[in-house]
Structures are given as structure tokens and as C-alpha cells.
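Final report, section 2: Outcomes. Of the targets proposed, GTP cyclohydrolase 1 feedback regulatory protein is the one most frequently requested by collaborating groups, and we therefore present its record in full.
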Amino acid sequence: MPYVLISTLIRLEIGPTIVGDEHSDVALMKELGATLHHRAGNPFKEWSVEDPPRIVLDKLEVLGYKLVGTTGIGQTAIWTLHKP
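The predicted structure is given below as C-alpha cells.
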């Protein structure tokens, strides 16, 4: 999967950081040190790490990913990365 979307709540900018959904690349999730969770009220599972987004972005850059977009939706900050 060449695209990765990470997000965090703005009030939790020091972590945790959501790094993928249940269909994400398991090898990449392990590389990031992520664990799969099913949060109450969500019909899906998501991978997260305790690291703040800056650390996750640094790790993804080392793995060859480049930032292609960023946005905020409500209280959530979102980054989209792509690996050529």
C-alpha cells in the first residue's frame, strides 16, 4: 500500500496517533510499533501508536514515505503520505 493516512485529536497532540485501519499493511504497522484496537462505538478496528504524530511522520520518512497532504476536520488533524 503506497498511501498512509495518520491522524490524532488536536487536544491529544502528544499521542496516541492513529496510523491505519484494519486493512492496513500489517508489516508496516509492526514497523511503526502499532497495535490493533476496536474502540467502543466504532464498527471498525484501527491501528494506533502512543507516539505523537511528529515521531510517526519521522519514522515514515525514514521508510521512504513523503507527505502529500494535511488537513484538519473538527478536532482531528490528518496527514496523508505516499511512498513512490
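The two ends are 10 Å apart (CA to CA).
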